[in-house]
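INFO  loader      accepted 1 record
INFO  loader      residues=190
INFO  predictor   begin
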Amino acid sequence: MTEGRSQLEKLRELVSNRQKLAPVARLVDAHVEAVDPGRARIRYAVKPEFMHPGKAVQGGIVTAYADMAMAMAAQTLCAEGEFLATSQLSISFLLPVTRGPVFGEGTVVKRGRSTFFMEGVVKDGDGVELARATSVGTARRTKPGYPTGSSRLIGFHHSRSLDDLTPRSPALAAPGSHDRSCSFCSSCLS
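INFO  predictor   done
INFO  writer      dumping tokens
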């Protein structure tokens, strides 16, 4: 990608280029539909392997749908070299997710100097709300000398420092990713 492009421009590329998505985003079959300043809309698959014995999507997956949309909304407002680290997330499951696709809509409600307050909603294809979430995150800068030209854009983001980022399993690391990536987040935006 060309240097000097804004985070928003880089994220908008995901609408037409799914290969730049983080592995976890591809796992839930994420399709970025729209990205605007402070907002994101993502379509997700509902796969049989996501279902618990009650024939509904397990809550952790539904949380991932909401978290990913909120993180992407915040990332649109991050400066070059920043990434979002989620420090708090709360979700209410309103109805069981039993069929797909579903849509995650993330919105930045307020941004301070480095803190983001976000809301997310997961809806079915008819617009019925299935879950509502709120999240707080912090914009963090990548460390000087930290590789920024590698792998993937936007997945989950969490509050661990970059020093702690290590792959959980070699099979989960993205091809071509550097040795400090993890299975939960893209540690760099290229």
